[in-house]
User: Fold this.
Amino acid sequence: QVRVVESGGASVQAGGSLRLSCAASGHTYKINSMGWFRQAPGKEREGVAAIITRGGETYYDDSVKGRFTISQDNSKNTVYLQMNSLKPEDTAMYYCAAYLPGDSSAWYAPLSQRRYKYWGQGTQVTVSA
Assistant:
């Protein structure tokens, strides 16, 4: 019902900034929340930031608080992840995901990957020291 496509990944030096974009298409009016996740080689995928699309409430993992900002442009059906003060440990494949009410019979927190059914292919972020 929904498709999401990420863009904006790149290679940057530590201390630099990047802005990732996630464009949604399809039944976007049904989307309740969107999240950004990342997965580094050899590690599990983890939640980075999430936004409740109607209320605008945001959630962040402690590792990115104060450095990353999630925002949305409803006119473009796009969610952004502004990443500042990047560190080498931020290096990962970044994924965007969308949640529609009814996707799951259980409730999961906005930063839980189990909440989300619709995923993009990812965009690579590499931060060099």
